[in-house]
Amino acid sequence: MLFDIDRHREILDTITRNKSRSLLTGFGVFWGIFMLVALLGGGNGLREILSNNFDGFATNSAMIWAQRTTKPYNGLRKGRSWSMNYNDVIRLREQVSGLEEVQPMISEWGRTATNGDKRSIITMKGLLAGYQNVEQPKMRYGRYINEMDIKKSRKVCVIGKKVYKEMFAGGGDPCGKRICIDNIYYSVVGVDYSSSNININGSGDQSVSVPLPMMQQAYNKGDTVHIIAVTARRGVAMSDITDEIRSVIASPHHIDPNDDKGISIFNSEVMFGMMDNLFSGVNFMIMLVGIGTLLAGIIGVSNIMMVTVKERTTEIGIRRAIGATPTNILSQIMTESMLLTTVAGMTGILFSVLILELLELANTTDGILVAKFQIGFWSAVAALALLSILGMAAGLAPALRAMKIKPVDAMRDDG
Fold first, then answer.
1. Cα–Cα distance between 415 and 413 in angstroms, integer?
2. Alpha-carbon distances, residue 183 vs 152, 163, 187, 198, 249 (angstroms)
3. Which residues of 50-174 form beta strands (DSSP E)?
């Protein structure tokens, strides 16, 4: 028979004969696999929470803005104030071949938006439709600003999450409704729920984005540009073209091309590289601690099985005397070890999954899961496979010792 009920009853009886010892031995495996799975799931959740701070932000992007010059140039003193204009956008598009997107932005801070008796302090942002390729929106309702809005300078807007909750406290789809900013009424066409904490001229949660041409007219901005957002083409590293970008902008404004403070460039590529290096180290530590704890539990199982074999010397000797083969002894001891390891390990996996599920519930906002703390299916399969292998390894040394027991030695030990 493939499944011997009597044999497995005997194995279960052996394990439960000393309940306290079996329980404490199994706890070592339980705690080891719990630590491994919980740390893996917790690491995944932590990574996702931190990644959400940069959610939708292009990894190959850069932000350019003007500051006071810090170096004299062509007879001009340092400390000069200057500003970028739309011609800088055109020059970057035409002269820097490594750029994919070149998107201007203008802003107005501390404005008040009203909807009936509801008010919200907002940051207005004038953008083009292509800006969504730099900072991808997460639309809860409606749509983003499109090319037709730009061409016709429509009075439409996309509002951030916090603005939506303050202006439309009753919830529901606000698209088609109007809000007032500085005596100008804008029709809401979308609600952006993106959770990025990279504040480009103000928090996205508290911003109202409108078509750039319309905002230029409403606030008499002319061709002034506060920020230029750019992304690099596929295969081009932003750090390789940063100097070229700075030179193209510096020339018409008579600024030293090496004045990296006068022409500030925030390169997201460097930031994301630091994040990747950080989590590579965190994952290594998680694996080191988790597997180390699990191995400690498995060694405990092996030691206890060695004690069990010694206690059962007489029993094993008698079994050998009445015809049990070494293979029978080997398989029984290893099966006992695998059963103890597997039951304790599965309990640890289930408990860790429960804890990770509670963490997910605690990180759910407005019915939206902020971060996934659970491990993947194949990670769970790998954990089970690791348990099986370690269970066999834990029982191997005690089983080999049991195989060497001879009936004569068993009787002498009994005497």
1. 5
2. 20, 18, 13, 30, 36
3. 61-66, 84-85, 99-115, 118-127, 139-142, 156-160
Q: What is the pLDDT of residue 235?
A: 87
Tens digits of per-residue pLDDT, 281-339? 877 887 787 778 777 777 777 777 776 666 666 666 666 666 666 667 667 777 777 77
Q: State how far the Cα of 275 lies from the Cα of 123, in Å rounded to an integer.
A: 28
d(Cα 157, Cα 191) in Å, to the nearest integer? Answer: 9
Residue 392's Cβ-count burial label (10 Å; 0-12, 13-18, 19+) is: middle
Answer positive or negative: Cα dihedral of 291, 294, 296, 299: negative
Question: What three-state secondary structure class fits 365?
Answer: strand
What gap in Å lies between CA 136 and CA 66, rounded to an integer?
24
DSSP character at residue 367: T
Tokens encoding 338: 């695998």
Whose tokens are 């939206």? That residue is 368
pLDDT digits (tens, 9 = 90+) for 98-148: 999 999 999 998 899 999 899 999 999 999 999 999 888 889 999 999 999
Residue 373's SS3 state is: coil
For residue 189, what are its two tokens? Answer: 């066409």
- Within a 10 A sphere around the Cβ of 385, how many other Cβ atoms? 10
pTM (predicted TM-score): 0.66
For residue 105, the tally of other CB atoms under 10 A from its CB is 23
Report which residue type is found at 81: S
